[in-house]
DNA sequence: TACTTTTGGTTAATCGATTAACCAAATATA
DNA sequence: TATATTTGGTTAATCGATTAACCAAAAGTA
């Protein structure tokens, strides 16, 4: 019906005052009398006034929008991170725009363009698996808006970062498996080019050495960590003449793939082979046997990433030093490693 | 470094022409010579010009942004719907803003406000479980922007809708279970106030009648369909003196909860009790035994919802009739009902 | 040659909200 | 009473891109 939206002008003409006065009244400017302010708000409500975000953002040079880039939203980790981010940012008057890269570099670049185009005030991102070249992220910084990365970030890139200590997490896992009596532990890892996976691998190697366990090359695998990958790599591990007695996969999906193969071959978990995943995806507690995994404190990561962003906009300090927040992870022990 | 972004004015002053000419050149206006157009584009590239979306959207009264509201993003169904929507809309020059209601009515209202505030050109939404009062959605329509609902919609609301045939899906499931020899089929359903769940219940009742099966009240349960709910309701069903020999849950999460209880109690699935879920979530194929479920063609739903929206903006026909697109679903038979 | 048309732009208004700069009337102060 | 200050606004410019309206110069036509 009422196709035309109410503008400041409409309110102004009802009350026979200037649009400037209306604008100030709505923003509770002291220079406008309490009586006028009340009247303006009253009329605004009656006319169902809704400010035109485009206009105010254009004028103020600030959109109060924050862009978020995640590899996929259908992961409980990312979904939870985003939820917590949103909570913090909403309270501070910001709204978020979620985009997903689907692990594709090309899509990621497109998303960055979209967000810049939408004039967001900042971007919080986690890199796609595919991404190697980071120059596209530089574009964000050269646009003068803050960029905060989480989980999948990069050392080289000079940005704020929030994530867990992957190196220590590997240690924690190996320690747990050693305590359970494992002597030959394999690692289905991600690609080293991604920092977090590289750190998990480094942690694995150092922990293995620390406990004087065999660190055969055949026990350390790099892969893309999908479920299918987990199946495939597990089969390879089983084909070894000297089988491992434990498998630590750097993702829950890979761990699940491995578990499927073990189940299919009738190999008992945890009796014959113990299994540990990473990420604490909900299904780890749902499958049989349930899978031991590492919780990454998604709530904290989301909250801290959001707060880091707010640090930039609230304190208008150009000279802000970079934040690198590294959280401790938590090992959730389930049947697969008991 | 270069805090100030390049504007049309900058390009104009380099070439000593008017900003109007630059604007037209970039939009390939015929009134600008090919030579000038090339020069403008060249300079634009050199200065790394990126149009200010806010300004053009304000002037054109069109943001080229589409808002999407989903209950949660961390469900493979919604995630896939969104992905396909995005693909179609991107091709048409639109970008999407995803928001999640977390199944909360309050959050849903907030999201609607945010999207309207962001001046989206349309909204594509699936209702939260909690939502009963639909007046808030009316706000969208009274703002004059198209609203398309999918999956969880409402009959009463006079909007376009894309979804599957829930009534027929129930029929399909009962037919399948009857063919497998089941004689006493229970239904863990959702709340009737939500249309899709009501339809599934109606389909269940009619199919049960059609095959002359018992339709005791104790076999039909309404719940919120979470995993916990599934556990709880399954326990109740097992406590009946006349146990069912099959359970049809209106969500995969509830089905999974039911399965957990059955596994824990050592009741064999599918030998003693057959189980069917709904939604074809990935974990249905991952758990043991794998769960029979209904695929909702998320790709098509996403694509069709997007195309329905485009129908509104491309054809500027005020008098467009409402689209109600009902797709057929597909039963994916797995171990739990074999 | 004189007039018309086309080409390739320019000028200025506009979208709606914000804000710097200004000002009249009311009130306070000396 | 005369001047200073406060109160409560108003005016006009601005953000950057778009576009309706306009126009000079070049080219075409009778």
Task: Report on this structure.
2 copies of one chain form a homodimer. With 338 residues, chain A is an alpha/beta fold. The first copy, chain A, has 12 helices and 12 strands. In chain A, strands 2-1-3-4-5-11 form a 6-stranded parallel β-sheet, with helices on both faces. Chain A is elongated. The interface between A and B is large, with 48 and 48 residues.
Radius of gyration based on Cα positions of chain A: 26 Å
Mean pLDDT of chain A: 91
What pattern of helices and strands is seen along the backbone of chain A? Answer: HHHHEHEHEHEEHEHEHEHEEHEE
Number of strands of chain A: 12
Number of helix segments of chain A?
12
* Proportion of strand residues of chain A: 5-15%
Helix content of chain A: 40-55%
How would you classify the helix and strand content of chain A by structural class?
alpha/beta
The two chains with the largest interface, and their residue counts, are: A-B, 48 and 48 residues
Unreliable residue runs of chain A: none
Key traits:
homodimer, 338 residues, alpha/beta, 6-stranded parallel β-sheet, 4-stranded parallel β-sheet, 15% strand, elongated, DNA-binding
């Amino acid at each position: 019906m009422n196709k035309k939206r109410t503008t400041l002008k409409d309110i102004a003409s009802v009350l026979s005052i200037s649009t400037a006065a209306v604008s100030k009244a709505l923003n509770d400017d002291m220079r406008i009398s309490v009586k006028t302010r009340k009247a303006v708000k009253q009329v605004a409500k009656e006319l169902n006034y809704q400010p035109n975000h485009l206009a105010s953002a254009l004028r103020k040079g600030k959109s109060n929008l924050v862009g978020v880039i995640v590899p996929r939203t259908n992961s409980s980790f990312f979904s939870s991170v985003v939820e917590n981010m949103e909570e913090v940012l909403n309270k501070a008057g910001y709204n978020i725009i979620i985009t997903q890269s689907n692990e594709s570099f090309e899509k990621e670049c497109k998303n960055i363009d979209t967000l810049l185009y939408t004039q967001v005030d900042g971007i919080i991102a986690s890199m796609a698996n595919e991404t190697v070249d980071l120059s596209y992220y530089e574009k964000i910084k050269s646009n003068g808006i803050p960029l905060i990365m989480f989980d999948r970030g990069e050392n080289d890139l000079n940005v704020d970062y929030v994530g867990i200590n992957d190196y220590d997490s590997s240690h924690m896992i190996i320690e747990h498996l050693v305590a359970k009596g494992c002597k030959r532990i394999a690692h289905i890892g991600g690609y080293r080019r991604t920092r977090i996976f590289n750190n998990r691998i480094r942690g694995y190697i150092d922990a293995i050495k620390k406990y004087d366990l065999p660190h055969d090359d055949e026990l350390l695998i790099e892969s893309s960590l999908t479920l299918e990958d987990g199946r495939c790599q597990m089969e390879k591990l089983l084909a070894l003449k000297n089988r491992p007695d434990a498998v630590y996969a750097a993702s829950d999906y890979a761990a699940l793939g491995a578990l499927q193969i073990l189940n299919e071959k009738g190999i008992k978990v945890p009796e014959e082979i113990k299994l540990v995943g990473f990420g604490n995806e909900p299904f780890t507690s749902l499958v049989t046997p349930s899978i031991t995994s590492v919780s990454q404190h998604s709530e904290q990561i989301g909250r801290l990433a959001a707060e880091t962003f707010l640090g930039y906009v609230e304190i208008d300090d150009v000279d802000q030093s970079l934040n690198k927040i590294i959280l401790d992870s938590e090992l959730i022990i389930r049947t697969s490693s008991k």
